[in-house]
Design a protein that fits this description.
homodimer, 142 residues, alpha/beta, 2,3-Dihydroxybiphenyl 1,2-Dioxygenase, domain 1, 4-stranded mixed sheet, 27% helix
Chain lengths: 142, 142
């Protein structure tokens, strides 16, 4: 098995709230949109983020843990601290609860926001090799 | 905010078990390996999968829900049904609990395995557009 992640699927209790946040709030264009079932976005080269309605999901995968903060985060990496602050402002305007960015022990700068279904996104600038690996060449530099 | 996922971070209660499974079992080469803290793999173009020790994680993000199946899955997409069966066999040999692949309502073929920290991976062949979007050209065709 090669190291390959093709889709990240978040099992959501409220798919309509997810649509309001990601589509209406952030302006993301869906790749697939089946109301009441699934909403998908292209979030990278050969990478899709899928929001799967919990009722549909449990039929296929069985019960999942609910409530609290899920034991995972998604990170959105950027080329500068300024861009981090700007994206956190975007998320706040779209209705997310935001924890402001701060300098981190590992040398970067990041903050978090929580999406309407409780999933945590880290918005980060990681200088050095990780940034070269993760941030597209077109991004505003530091 | 552009639709971009740079890292997927799984908060794990047992980082050593994760290392045994992903590194020793599946043969993945770490991008970053800090025992007791974090283990990272490159899992796509501008995409990293990070396994973050729970003790380190809760200091930064606060408590997370434990036990049961987390409300998310990772998918590993492949170019053929044969390849799906083969990868599920790989995962079983590496020690994962496997649910054999089956034809799905959405037209594809997929099975699941559970990693040592309870995270579900779907191993899938999705014919058509989704496959063209997700599966690298070098993959064995259907």
């Amino acid at each position: 098995m090669d190291p390959r992640v093709s889709l990240v699927t978040l099992v959501v209790a409220d798919l309509e709230a997810a649509r309001r946040f990601y589509v209406a709030g952030l302006g993301w264009e869906p790749l697939v949109d089946v109301p009441g079932e699934v909403l998908m976005f292209r979030t990278g080269e050969r990478l899709v983020l899928s929001l799967w309605d919990e009722r549909a999901a449990v039929e296929e995968i069985g019960p999942v843990v609910r409530g609290g903060t899920p034991p995972m985060t998604l990170a959105h990496n950027l080329g500068s601290r300024r861009a981090v602050d700007r994206v956190l402002d975007d998320a706040a305007r779209a209705g997310a609860e935001v924890r402001s960015a701060t300098a981190r022990d590992w040398g970067g700068y990041s903050g978090y926001f929580t999406d309407p279904n409780g999933f945590l996104w880290e918005v980060a600038h990681a200088p050095g090799e990780l940034s070269e690996l993760l941030v597209p060449p077109g991004d505003e530099p530091a």
